[in-house]
What does this fold into?
Amino acid sequence: MPKASKSKIYIGIGGWVYEPWRGTFYPDGLAQKRELEYASRQVTSIEINGTYYGSQKPESFAKWHDETPDNFIFSLKGSRYITNRRVLAEAGESVERFFAGGVMQLKEKLGVVNWQFMPTKKFDPADFEAFLKLLPTSVEGRAIRHAVEVRHDSFKVPDFISLVRDYGVAIVMSGDSDYPQLADLTAPFVYARIMGTTEKAAAGYGPAALDRWAERARIWAAGEMPDGLDVVAKGKAPKTPRDVYLYVISGHKVRNPAAAKALIDRLS
It folds into this structure.
């Protein structure tokens, strides 16, 4: 098993406000205002979904920063008003507003911005490169990591892999889902979203599946490519340690915190 010594692995869930988690993940009687405080001590990262649907108050980001442990990381989705537009090249002002809207109040706890595209969005090389050029490499002196979550088969071409690799942007690796899987390594980090939890497994996944995803996280972190994943481009990416952000998303959502905790246990 490869051992990672220069990289970090973050395991988490999507959001923290979900009523069915009360009494299953959250203890009975826990005040709703303390749910983030509790969740951030059970997992090591959370992907914020609300930023996809609309802007949040700067005070909210600052509050989330202060309520979580020092080593905790947030990732967040970029605004759908940016990714859902027909011409991505015209999103410059919207990208600037997004980063000026308070997200930087997360400070050192800001991990990756996930730019999620609709399944109907097709790969237009020129327009997509124009979009990548709009993504800032740093804001207020802090480096920004970007990932793109593409869900149309037209992206499964070497030209797309080469393009995002040139800009150091990660491709979101979709696991256990019906979405196209592009596991090519294109950035100094890996961003994975696994979506196969089920009600019948107490920890969302069975032991063998949990072992497999934990092993993949270790292999990614060590700078190598795990077996059993779909890659598009031929040839190997440079072997270099990579931070890993792995989120248990969708599937049987009630079980997702249990799956994340089980992965953390295997990696500790």
